[in-house]
Write a structure and sequence with these properties.
This protein is α/β, with parallel strands linked by helices. The chain has helices at residues 50-58, 90-100, 105-118, 134-147, 164-181, 192-198, 232-249; strands spanning 9-19, 25-35, 39-43, 65-70, 75-78, 152-156, 184-189, 201-206, 211-217. The chain has seven helices and nine strands, in the order βββαββαααβαβαββα. A six-stranded mixed sheet has the order 5-6-7-3-8-9, sandwiched between helices. Strands 2-1-4 form a three-stranded antiparallel sheet, covered by helices on one side. The longest helix is centred in the last third of the chain and has 18 residues, at 164-181. It is globular, with a radius of gyration of 18 Å.
């Protein structure tokens, strides 16, 4: 079973652009939807406005014209840096967002314990960030993000600093969490492989100013069924298609 885009959009950008006070135009008008229960990936060169679009989805910046609508207030933002608090244990770090949301102590501890188990960090609850590998720190960051039970996960190149082996494992971990929780994801990456592996839809962006060139539906999207076979030849063809498109932007 795959997820389709027939459900009502969780996030919609309609002619949304961004011009900063100094006159710099970061985004041309953007039209894009993030469907409920789907992973939408933004891929494109540096400076094409991917992070601006993500910040807009989070409500951290407003479009200069046009509109962004978001049908939930339950969201989490995951950065490239795990942003763990050095003086807090894994358990305390994972609890911190739920604590800020004033979730009762017993409930947030139970949520954190479940999230820690889900990301494979059982036994490291009392460890500090300095005692963790890069992949383990990102697992803790993912656990923290799902403890608040988000409907929308905003992810800004979360695995970019990891080695390829760990990065692939973290992508699989994200899909496992998505299958369990069925949140929507807006995901930024520079990796074409990652975009094709994770995305139900891939939005190709370019600079001058930032704009969406094309939105491609995956020929073999992630499924809620963990045993579902992916069409690897179709995904490789998609990678090649996107690689050619991105390569042409630099010519």
């Amino acid at each position: 079973m795959t997820v389709t885009s027939q459900t009502r959009a969780l996030v919609s950008f309609t002619g949304a652009d961004k011009v900063y006070g100094n006159g710099f135009r970061a985004l041309a008008p953007i039209d894009l939807e993030v469907a409920r229960g789907e992973i939408t990936v933004l891929v494109g060169p540096s400076g094409c406005g991917k992070t601006t679009l993500l910040r807009m989805a989070a409500g951290l910046t407003e479009p200069t014209s046009g509109a962004m609508s978001r049908d939930t207030d339950r969201l989490s933002y995951v950065f490239q840096d795990p942003t763990l608090l050095a003086w807090r244990t894994v358990q305390a770090n994972v609890e911190v967002i739920a604590k800020l949301q004033k979730v009762p102590r017993a409930e947030r501890r139970a949520r954190a314990a479940e999230a820690i188990r889900m990301v494979g960090l059982d036994g490291f609850q009392k460890s500090y960030p300095r005692e963790l590998s890069g992949g383990m720190k990102m697992r803790a960051s993912l656990a923290r993000s799902v403890t608040s039970e988000p409907e929308l996960l905003l992810m800004d190149e979360p695995f970019a600093a990891l080695d390829e082996f760990t990065r692939e494992k973290m992508g699989a971990e994200l899909l496992r969490l998505w299958r369990d929780r069925r949140f929507s994801v807006l995901f930024i990456t520079h990796s074409i492989y990652e975009a094709c592996t994770l995305g139900h839809r891939i939005a190709i962006m370019d600079t001058g100013p930032g704009h969406i060139v094309e939105v491609i539906d995956s020929p073999s999207p992630p499924s809620v069924d963990p045993g579902h076979e992916r069409d690897e030849p179709a995904l490789r063809a998609l990678q090649q298609q996107i690689s050619i498109m991105l390569g042409s932007f630099r010519e």
